[in-house]
Amino acid sequence: MFKVTPNPPDTDPTSPYESPDSKKLHEAADRALDYYLGSAADIQATPRKLCSMFIVNPELDTETLLAHACESLASANVMTMDLADHVEGPSRNTLLGIAQVIMLGELAVNRALDQID
């Protein structure tokens, strides 16, 4: 059995604002969404609150921050390389690429540390 399908498929040309009732319905829906979700202007005007769950001590000096960043990058590199040892194919190549990007970041942080000394 063959089903006849128009090419291109028929679409409903009716606009959501075809009748005055549908326009009122859409306006009511927009008002309800603005009331419950807030408008884009309200969201953008809201000041951003910092989350204090994970905060870096603002009194730490640059050298200490860079040293911790370097250690974190070195750990991430080791974890990525270890994971790459257990994977094959394209996923392994992706992990090795991520490890290389981490290593480049570690080199940049080390260079910054050298410039501080």
Question: Which features characterize this protein?
Answer:
single chain, about 120 residues, mainly alpha, 2 domains, 4 helices, about 65% helix, flat
Structural write-up:
- The mean pLDDT is about 85.
- Helix 3 runs antiparallel to helix 4 (about 90-115).
- This protein has 2 domains: about 20-50; about 60-115.
- It has about 120 residues and is an all-alpha fold.
- The protein is built from 4 helices and no strands.
The structure class reads mainly alpha
Mean pLDDT: 84
The gross shape turns out to be flat
Helix and strand sequence? HHHH
Number of helices: 4
- Report the portion of residues in β strands: under 5%
Distance between the termini: 81 Å
Bin the helical content. 55-70%
DSSP, total strands: 0
Task: Kindly report the oligomeric state of this protein.
Answer: single chain
- Total number of distinct structural domains: 2
How many strands, what sense, and barrel or not for the largest sheet? Answer: none
Rg value: 28 Å
In brief:
The protein is an all-alpha fold. 64% of the residues lie in helices and 0% in strands.
Please specify the SSE layout and strand pairing.
Blueprint: H1 20-37, H2 40-45, H3 62-85, H4 90-116
Helix pairs in contact: 3-4
